Fold DUF503 domain-containing protein.
Amino acid sequence: MYVGTLSFDLLLGDVRSLKEKRSVVRPIVAELHRKYAVSVAEVGDQDLHRRATIGLAVVSGDTGHVTEVMDRCERLVAARPEVELLSVRRRLHGDDDWS
């Protein structure tokens, strides 16, 4: 079993409130979940209206599949015009990582 995780640090465009932030972040989270069947949520910077951290996890028996899904998710977020992708943290965990 392999688990891939991504953490996206995002700068939001013309957002002036937490309500506007939700209207930008929620569709991204929903699209990632719908298109790629990954577990995804806003996991940080909830109190800042122009920043967001989105965390994502994918599980598979094949490392190639995990890597492919993570690549597609990263491209989707990077292509969103309403956000600037500041950084991505990527990790791949295998059976040997856990005791």
Notes: The two ends are 13 Å apart (CA to CA). Residues 17 and 29 are 18 Å apart (CA to CA). The domain at 2-97 is CATH 3.30.70.1120 (Alpha-Beta Plaits). The beta strands are 2-12, 39-44, 51-60, 83-93.
